[in-house]
């Protein structure tokens, strides 16, 4: 199992709009529907008004690799250029699923 904690540091005042666009474009739903996706959820941190946290959980490295090739990820990358200044990814792996 692979867990990713992805922190998006958004341009000032644009975090909520970024999340709304992700949902409107159906990016979150498309990711959840992928084979091997166990969890794909966005969270608003209690502190850090311009940060957005994404928690992803994937069955294995193959599922995560396939995720990276999906067309909805291209949409996300385009949105990131508009709304995000920095992306921080913390990756955790275990043999358990």
Could you characterize what this model shows?
The chain is of the alpha+beta class. The chain has one domain: Alpha-Beta Plaits, CATH 3.30.70.100. The chain has 4 helices and 4 strands, in the order E-H-H-E-E-H-H-E. It has a 4-stranded antiparallel beta sheet with strand order 2-3-1-4. Helix 1 packs antiparallel against helix 4. The longest helix has 13 residues. It starts with a strand and ends with a strand.
What gross morphology would you assign? Answer: globular
Helix run count: 4
Total DSSP E strands: 4
* Strand portion: 35-45%
Largest beta sheet: what is the strand line-up?
Answer: 2-3-1-4
Q: CATH first level: which class?
A: Alpha Beta
Count of all domains: 1
| CATH topology heading | Alpha-Beta Plaits
- Amino- and carboxy-terminal Cα gap: 5 Å
Structural class category: alpha+beta
User: What number is the mean pLDDT?
Assistant: 95
**Which architecture name does CATH use?**
2-Layer Sandwich
């Amino acid at each position: 199992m692979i867990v990713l904690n992805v922190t998006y540091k958004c341009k000032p005042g644009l975090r909520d709009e970024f999340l709304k666009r992700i949902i409107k474009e159906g990016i979150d739903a498309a990711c959840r529907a992928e084979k091997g996706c166990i969890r794909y959820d966005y969270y608003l941190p209690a502190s850090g008004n311009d940060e957005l946290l994404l928690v992803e959980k994937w069955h294995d490295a193959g599922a995560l690799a396939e995720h990276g090739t999906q067309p909805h990820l291209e949409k996300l990358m385009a949105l990131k250029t508009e709304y995000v200044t920095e992306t921080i990814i913390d990756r955790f792996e275990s043999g358990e699923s």
